[in-house]
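Changelog note: in this version the structure field was regenerated for every chain. One regenerated record is shown below for reference.
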Amino acid sequence: MDPAELTPHLVGHNVLDAAGQRLGRLDRLYRDVDDPGVCFGVVPMIRRGRRRWVFVPLVDATVAPSSVTLCCGAQLARRAPQTRPGRELPAEIEGDLYRHYDIPHQPRTDGSTRLHLVREADHRR
């Protein structure tokens, strides 16, 4: 996937795993400020009666008119580091997220997170 395709307009698209199984709808996009080719999406899921946000990798994902197909399977995505709705991913969990999906990660020296929410206004710049 071309990183230029990862725009806020994808929010609301269905997210499918590599086998075509629907995981949910894309709720948010996060871009790595140190590596523009790395992006994650957030998909709200309910598991055991609790709603949570699951981060899924959009590296090498395929964009269709109404869906985004990931390169990973549903089980891997469901076990990914998560956060509760309304909360950002803490910097201390960020490294776990990259390791979970086997994506190279170098933490920032100031302790801040590399992943930042992609907003419509940010994309227009």
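Spot check on this record: The chain has one domain: 3-108. The chain is about 15% helix and 30% strand.
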